[in-house]
Amino acid sequence: MSFSPSFFSLRPGEKLNRGFVRLLEVFARKVRRRPGDSEQELPEAIHQLRVLIKRFRALLWFVRPALPSTMKRRTRRKLRKASHLLAAQRDAMIIGKTLEKVSRKSPNLLMCPAAIPENPEGKDRKKLRRLRQEAMKVFLQVIQEIRSAARNNFSWPSPSDRLYKAFQAVKKTGKKALREKKDAAFHDWRKKTKRLLHLLELTQAAPTKRMEQTIRRTDRLQEKLGDYHDYAMTGMFLRNNPSAQLPRFFIRRSLHLLEKKKRHLQKKTRRLARSVKLH
């Protein structure tokens, strides 16, 4: 993972109010410049737009104490809509890739390539382009609304306080997930960890060696939690699909392998969580 300052970072010594307005402009430019007109570029463009929305939501959480309540509710609703427009394509792709990965662990599953579901959106490029354009439109509307309001003299929060609060949220949700061992709890842990990673990138344009270590370990933790989420989502897909669509032996064996992978990741994330410290 690179620690060089990115477009998402506040500049060293930059005041939060000025940095926030500057980053709004950067986000707007990034959204407008997304590729995706060709067949090859479209899936990557959708992925990058989803990542951009997640980064933006982390930024809004960071300055949330400064924003009016009505604006917080409205922007949260609109950004959730933009994310949902793009989620189906990503989920279908991940389920297919996860089942392919799991099938390599069992010769019997490799004999059943027809069981791997196709991406329902994969052949409808026109629909994908329309969904992407709609998500971009909603995203840009949110940026414009917040940019207009940000010119007011808000009471801006302390960056160190917000970063500490994000870190505490990761610790709390992590303990709950490891205690309950439920997929929903791990999903919540993953989201909080991803948010912490984005906020570390936002505030650490020139990190110390200790902070670099924290960023690296947080990144590794969110990657493992992302893998856990992919396995959990694939397992849900298999359990909710009629047995007529997928062979029963495929579902049984795949679910067994997915649960085994999840148990392994539970142990791994427990060890990683202990190593993440906010220096």
Q: Separation of termini? A: 19 Å
Task: State the share of residues found in helices, binned by percent.
Answer: over 70%
Quick one: biggest sheet?
Answer: none
From the alpha carbons, calculate the radius of gyration and give it in angstroms. 20 Å
Looking at the structure, what is the overall shape? globular
Our count of helices gives 9
Rounded mean pLDDT score: 85
Low-confidence blocks of residues: none
- The fraction of residues in strands falls at under 5%
Count every beta strand, where a strand is a DSSP E run of 2 or more residues: 0
Order of helices and strands: HHHHHHHHH
The chain-level structural class is mainly alpha
Count of folded domains: 2
Quickly list its features.
9 helices; CHAD domain; 2 domains
How would you characterize the overall build of this protein?
With 279 residues, the chain is mostly helical. The protein has two domains: 12-154; 158-279, CHAD domain (Alpha solenoid). It has helices at 16-32, 41-62, 69-103, 107-110, 125-149, 159-180, 183-203, 209-240, 248-275. The relative contact order is 0.13.
Q: What layout of secondary structure does this protein have?
A:
Elements: H1 16-32, H2 41-62, H3 69-103, H4 107-110, H5 125-149, H6 159-180, H7 183-203, H8 209-240, H9 248-275
